[in-house]
Q: What sequence folds into this?
């Protein structure tokens, strides 16, 4: 695999993606050397002990999106993040820095805040009044004389890693994890033209679905299902035969799907303000990113949805959809957002209502596991990364996936298509 010596320009990226789509339209099978993907054991979607392993070794040690700066815009604003179990307090400091702490008092473990969000001057524990600064340092306590040898400096709130990408705030409970930037890998490079520092929070909503988190997540990593599940919606304008995929390190990936007609414009976004000067990559196609483990974002120049997948139990999950408007120009938000969100909800419903039936069906003794094809390889890539993060030897052998996709992981944002790309392209 050739490694360029410079970051590719938007034109170079578009040229590579165009060549990739042409290759996909023209191929008669997977590229030379692409393996038969081994079956993914069904138990990974049903076994409570596997989910426990997944939670402790992966979810609670990964970078996950928590909130947007607009939700805690001023010093003292806080938000309680509870998606992965231990409540984490995310708070905007007097110095403008956003920090995260476990919502647990260093005295006897009472919560510092009990509401999902709000604004405070300082953090006063409601149990015995220990007082912390917005930076988590213990500043005062009642009856200090009664504590022998107590050092205030040793009783700060326990920090949780908290880093920003643009105005988006992510947390990670693993103190030793690589940085958020390392986790995001190539994604910020693609987002640069959407000005992540200027996005505005628009709307968020969660939906409880009775399935394993991976059942629904899988559906957002491929477009193989469009012709069945989204026959009357997405399939009418997306052409899945031209979809080109990049697998990146760390379980991240990218899927790029052409429109059926090059001049097609989503009627739901017509009239909405768009980021000026956005390249063809985003403006004329359908790029969708996976930031491991649970953020899928199909960006457009008129709006960015973060689709988040949260485990709630072996057979329960929540899907959360958060919308952002790119390019804050100080104007009020467009009234067209309401229709835009409603249109998306209709498509989402097509996926969620089916997911509950899939869960019942994968529980069946008649189901052995997932047999994936070339265009579903992002799902396999996700599972391989899960085992790497857990530690391959710690995954019970009957639930393990084989590591086969390493030769197909791209070190660069977009790899050129295989040499067979010279094959005659089919007419789209
Ligand atoms: S538990 Fe917080 S002051 Fe006692
Ligand atoms: Fe779908």
A:
């Amino acid at each position: 695999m050739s490694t360029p010596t410079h970051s590719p320009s938007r034109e170079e990226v578009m040229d590579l993606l165009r060549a990739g789509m042409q290759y996909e339209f023209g191929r008669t099978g997977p590229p030379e050397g692409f393996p038969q993907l081994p079956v993914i054991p069904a138990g990974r979607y049903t076994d409570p002990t596997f989910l426990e392993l997944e939670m402790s070794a992966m979810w609670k040690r990964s970078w996950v999106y928590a909130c947007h700066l607009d939700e805690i815009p001023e010093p003292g604003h806080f938000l309680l993040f509870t998606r992965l179990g231990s409540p984490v307090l995310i708070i905007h400091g007097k110095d403008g820095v956003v920090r995260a702490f476990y919502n647990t008092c260093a005295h006897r473990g009472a919560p510092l805040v009990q509401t999902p969000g709000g604004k405070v001057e300082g953090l006063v524990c409601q149990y015995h009044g220990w007082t912390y600064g917005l930076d988590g340092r213990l500043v005062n306590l009642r009856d200090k004389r009664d504590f022998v040898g107590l050092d205030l400096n040793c009783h700060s709130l326990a920090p949780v890693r908290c880093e920003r990408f643009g105005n988006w705030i992510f947390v990670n409970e693993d103190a030793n994890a690589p940085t958020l930037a390392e986790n995001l890998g190539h994604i910020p490079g693609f987002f640069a033209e959407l000005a992540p520092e200027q996005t505005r929070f628009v709307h968020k909503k969660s939906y409880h679905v009775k399935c394993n988190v991976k059942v629904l997540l899988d559906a957002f990593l491929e477009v193989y299902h469009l012709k069945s599940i989204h026959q009357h919606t997405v399939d009418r304008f997306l052409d899945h035969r031209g979809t080109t995929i990049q697998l990146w390190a760390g379980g991240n990936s990218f899927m790029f799907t052409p429109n059926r007609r090059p001049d097609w414009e989503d009627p739901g976004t017509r009239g909405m303000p768009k980021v000026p000067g956005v390249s063809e990559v985003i403006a004329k196609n359908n790029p969708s990113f996976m930031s491991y483990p649970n953020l899928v974002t199909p960006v457009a120049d008129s709006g960015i949805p973060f689709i988040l997948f949260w485990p709630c139990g072996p057979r329960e999950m929540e899907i959360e959809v958060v919308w952002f408007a790119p390019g804050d120009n100080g104007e009020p938000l467009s009234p067209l957002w309401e229709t835009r969100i409603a249109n998306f909800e209709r498509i989402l419903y097509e996926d969620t209502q089916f997911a509950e039936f899939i869960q019942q069906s994968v529980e069946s003794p008649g189901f052995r596991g997932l047999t994936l094809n070339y265009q579903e390889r992002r799902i396999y890539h996700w599972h391989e990364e899960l085992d790497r993060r857990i530690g391959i030897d710690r995954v019970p052998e009957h639930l393990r996936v084989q590591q086969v996709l390493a030769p197909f992981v791209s070190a660069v944002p977009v790899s050129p298509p295989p040499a067979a790309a010279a094959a005659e392209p089919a007419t789209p």
The first helix runs from residue 10 to 26.
